[in-house]
Every structure is written in C-alpha cells, then in structure tokens.
Amino acid sequence: MSDSQFVSLVDRLGTGDSEAAGDLMLAYGAEIRRFIRFRMRDSVLRRLHDSIDVEQSVFRRFFKRAGTGDLRLATEDELRAYLFTLAKHRVSELKREQSAQKRKASFVEEDSSFQLGQLAGTGGATDSAAAESELMMEVRSIVGTDDWEAVVQRLEGRTWKEVARDRGTKPDTLRKRLQTALQLVKARLTSTE
C-alpha cells in the first residue's frame, strides 16, 4: 500500500466510511489472525476462542478508537504495530480471564453437597440405618473431634464457608481435609469387603 493510499484510507476511516473499514480488514486481517494464532499457544485457549473472533474484537477496538479522532497514525508501519499491540493485549486479556476461571472453578462451591452416602459408591451400602451408623462411627474415628463437628454441621446443611468461619480456617482447606478423611474411610471399607 502506497503512502497516498494509506493516507486516503485513514481519512476515509475518520469519516466513518464502512467501505474503508472493509478495505482495512481485508488488507490486514490475515496477518492479524496469524499473529493471534501464534500468541494463542495454549490449546485450551484455542479451543475456547477462535482467532477470527479475536481478530474482530481487535478491529472493533481499532474502529472505536479511530472514530473518536484520537488516533493519529502517520505510516502503514505505525498502523500495523498498533493493530499487533491491540491483538497482543486482547490475547493477554483472554489468558487472564481463563486463569481467573480456573481459580474460580477450583474454589469451593457454596451449594456443593456433602453426604456420607457418597462413600457407598453405586452399591448403596448406607441404605440401612445399621450401615449408616457403622459408617458414621468409622468417619468419627478418622476425622477427630474438631473435624467431626464440622462433618455434623455440613450434614445439617451449613455451607463450607459458614463451618470454616466458625473454625477460623479457609473453606477449601476444611473441605479438602474432610475429603481426605472420607477417602480414608472409603479405602478402609472397600478393603474389608
């Protein structure tokens, strides 16, 4: 693209010419997509976000900024560098969002169910009152007095957050500690059968 063509394109973009926007996307779209695909190395990120969608997001941001009249680009190299910068920032945002989702997913769900019947597996060994009583004694022998109170409170319907707050610990820490104890109970029960 010659300097005069570039200046003409920028002027047309400043007036809101939709044909100029299409010309710009046609001229730089493939290059921006390649750059985005290169930056999106994470397979999960690639599976969740298509490079075309990210490209469109980059151009949408560009056109929004160009429409305000604040954007002054003197050369084609400046335009290309600005588009690559927008693409780099957008991919970084997506990576941060993905990391935040992972952290959020690993955090304790308030409505997560907690039932000793989970230990029984598909056989339903806790269907009878005697089996349930035996299971409760086994759990109590492993978890100790403090954690047993936490188990009882969870069975009464309190959330992990409420139970952990009473104990001065984090909900996820308490949940994992009790989950480990329940796994020990399950291992004991299945090894004797």
From TrEMBL:
<dbReference type="Pfam" id="PF07638">
    <property type="entry name" value="Sigma70_ECF"/>
</dbReference>
<dbReference type="InterPro" id="IPR013325">
    <property type="entry name" value="RNA_pol_sigma_r2"/>
</dbReference>
<dbReference type="GO" id="GO:0006352">
    <property type="term" value="P:DNA-templated transcription initiation"/>
</dbReference>
<keyword id="KW-0238">DNA-binding</keyword>
<feature type="domain" description="RNA polymerase sigma-70 ECF-like HTH">
    <location>
        <begin position="6"/>
        <end position="183"/>
    </location>
</feature>
<dbReference type="InterPro" id="IPR053812">
    <property type="entry name" value="HTH_Sigma70_ECF-like"/>
</dbReference>
<keyword id="KW-0805">Transcription regulation</keyword>
<dbReference type="GO" id="GO:0016987">
    <property type="term" value="F:sigma factor activity"/>
</dbReference>
<keyword id="KW-0804">Transcription</keyword>
<dbReference type="GO" id="GO:0003677">
    <property type="term" value="F:DNA binding"/>
</dbReference>
<dbReference type="InterPro" id="IPR039425">
    <property type="entry name" value="RNA_pol_sigma-70-like"/>
</dbReference>
<keyword id="KW-0731">Sigma factor</keyword>
<protein>
    <submittedName>
        <fullName>Protein containing RNA polymerase sigma-70 domain</fullName>
    </submittedName>
</protein>
